[in-house]
Amino acid sequence: MDLPIPFQVERALKKLGRDLSLARRRRKLTQAMLAERIGASVATVRRIENGHPGTAIHLIVRILDVLGELDRVNLLLDSSRDGLGLMLMDEQVPERVRRPDPDKGVM
């Protein structure tokens, strides 16, 4: 069962595609040249640049590598910058920590 793609996700995919297209053209690469370098077809590159939701993520990462922007993948959801995740984690930090009971075998 395929769920419909939320509007904000579709919009983000289209923006990513436009950005990848612009970065490719700034580097004077044709779609055919990029396709050859990532091991895909020109039609696949075209779908990526059009924001098609069925694109394999490894192809997008390969494009970033060809464009010299692979380090950006590490920033996608860097756990040290995940404000919501850190906030949720902090909510579970106990108010105080008690000394473990040596009779229970816990260190």
Write structural notes for this entry:
This protein is an all-alpha fold and 107 residues long. It has helices at 7-26, 31-38, 42-49, 57-66, 83-91. The mean pLDDT is 91. The chain has a single domain, classed as 434 Repressor (Amino-terminal Domain) (Orthogonal Bundle), CATH 1.10.260.40.
Largest sheet: none
Annotation, overall tally of beta strands: 0
Task: List low-confidence stretches.
Answer: none
The average pLDDT score comes to 91
Structure in a nutshell:
The chain is mainly α and 107 residues long.
Q: Strands, helices and their partners?
A:
Layout (H helix, E strand, L loop, with lengths): L6 H20 L4 H8 L3 H8 L7 H10 L16 H9 L16
Helix pairs in contact: 2-3
Which features would summarize this protein structure in a list?
0% strand; mainly alpha; elongated; single chain; 107 residues; 434 Repressor (Amino-terminal Domain)
